[in-house]
Design a protein that fits this description.
This protein has three domains: about 250 residues, UDP-N-acetylmuramoyl-L-alanine:D-glutamate ligase (3-Layer(aba) Sandwich), CATH 3.40.1190.10; about 80 residues, no CATH class; about 55 residues, no CATH class. About 30% of the residues lie in helices and about 20% in strands. It is globular, with a radius of gyration of 24 Å. This is UDP-N-acetylmuramyl tripeptide synthase. It holds the Pfam family Mur_ligase_M.
């Protein structure tokens, strides 16, 4: 068996840990994956891989693209190993590979489709050596962890094996250039749309000058942020030519023409949101590179839909209800959601449900990302109501992070006493984040930093 007895013992330990979690009613891949990497730090490279390995990364869209790819390949009768739950750090990828082998280490999957966090590239790519890596885009992300998208491009490029074929977004001036000259590459794009402009505007434009001579770029068309096509007036830089393109995008009728390396074919548009148009053409490019027959490739979009965890649309009581999940603390993702919601005709009410528990429990309250969001999309007469608040999940989860907060919250829930409201006395004022502060006049010492009312 590949890797020897240490790999086998690591597989057993991780599988047993996952089994124990399931027996106790707790699903998850992160803890078993951490155990595996602790026992064997090189387990990602040592374990047997499926015959084909595809990695999906990028700032936004990687969960959607990886899920769509997995669904399409399963529709082709392939056995697919995929971290669909979104556990995209090294531990999650390790456990996905472990789940894809038997107890004796033999692979039981034909292909792996693995979502990868951009910052984890150096821990994953050298051992994994994927056949294909698709990068959806590289835009501004959480400031505290991802810095500038140019830095993330360097992180990915420095970890890429030379044999990996790259499928890159030609309209992203940063993502389109990752990798080295040794990497085979192809590009995808969305042709100019009626809503595109010629001059960048908005809160976040991260590529505005030529990377060679520093001259201001001239835009052939500009879509958002640094997404579009541009060239250097001195001839030192130009957006790459895309082999795979979305053309004649018809949002209302859900139709699009997919140009597959010169072979134009009409297809179903899975979703008219511009980010999902990019996701669809990226999926088409990867499926074509994997050798899927183009007739079946195009017909796959008749049944594929974005994951309901990211997008859901339904009609309730004669009212169209659209749910969009955007990446937390990312103004660029919020802007795309605002733009899509503004595209609906008629009167609209917008509810912004903000989950910021991760910031509160790590003692970080950096709100700078809100200034990267283009709220102007909502400043129209047909948006008649905007409601802003925290999610219920945020309120309930805070107590799981702080020991003092957790202890007070758990005892309170055991007593099943009613929650106080804001009309109660100041001494029993309810914290907007957890229940610890309801039992005393001020937050618990170790909860104080986490509580907004502290």
């Amino acid at each position: 068996m590949r890797g020897g007895p240490r790999v086998l013992l690591t597989i057993w330990a991780a599988k047993l840990a996952a089994l124990a979690l399931r027996v106790t009613g707790r699903a998850g891949t992160h803890v078993p994956g951490r155990i595996a990497r602790r026992l064997h730090p090189g387990i990602i490279g040592a374990i047997r891989h499926p015959a084909r390995v595809v990695v999906v990364t990028g700032t936004n869209g990687k969960t959607t693209v990886s899920n769509l790819l997995a669904e399409a390949l399963q529709g082709e009768g392939m056995r697919v190993a995929s971290n669909r739950s979104g556990s995209n750090l090294a531990a999650g990828v390790a456990m996905t590979l472990i789940d894809a082998v038997t107890w004796t280490g033999r692979s039981r999957a034909d292909v792996a489709v693995l979502e990868m966090d951009e910052r984890s590239a150096k821990l994953i790519l050298p051992g994994l050596v994927p056949d294909i890596l698709v990068c959806t885009n590289l835009t501004r992300d959480s400031i505290k962890r991802n810095a500038h998208p140019d830095y993330i491009a360097w992180v990915i490029s420095s970890a890429l094996p030379a044999s990996t074929t790259l499928v890159l977004n030609a309209d992203d001036l940063i993502a389109s250039s990752i990798g080295s000259d040794a990497n085979p590459r192809t590009h995808f794009a969305v042709d100019r749309l009626p809503t595109d402009g010629d001059t960048p505007h908005g809160a976040a434009v991260d590529a505005a000058i030529c990377p060679v001579c520093d001259a201001p770029l001239v835009w052939d068309y500009w879509r958002f942020n640094h997404i579009g096509r541009a060239h250097c007036p001195n001839g030192d830089f130009r957006s790459p030519t895309a082999a795979y393109r979305a053309q004649q995008v018809d949002g209302p009728n859900r139709r699009v023409v997919l140009d597959l390396d010169g072979d134009a074919r009409p297809a179903t548009l899975i979703n008219p949101n511009i980010v999902n148009v990019y996701n669809e053409v990226a999926v088409a490019a990867v499926l074509d590179r994997l050798g899927i027959a183009r007739e079946r490739l195009v017909s796959a979009f008749d049944r594929l839909q974005p994951p309901t965890t990211r997008f859901q649309e339904e009609t309730v009581g004669g009212v169209e209800l659209v749910r969009l999940l955007t990446k937390g603390l990312v103004g660029v993702a919020c802007s795309r959601a605002f733009e899509y919601l503004a595209s609906f005709s008629g009167r609209k009410a917008v509810v912004l449900n903000i989950d910021e528990v991760s910031e509160r429990t790590t003692d970080v309250e950096n709100t700078a990302w809100t200034y990267d969001a283009d709220y102007d999309y909502l400043a129209t007469s047909d948006v008649q109501q905007i409601v802003v608040g925290e999610s219920a999940a945020t309120t309930r989860r805070c107590g799981s992070r702080s020991r003092a907060c957790r202890r007070s919250a758990s005892s309170r829930w055991r007593r099943s006493s009613p929650r106080p409201t804001r009309s109660t006395s100041r001494a029993r004022r309810r914290c907007s984040t957890c229940t610890a502060c309801t039992t005393r006049s001020s937050p618990a010492p170790r909860c104080r930093r986490a509580c907004a009312s502290g």
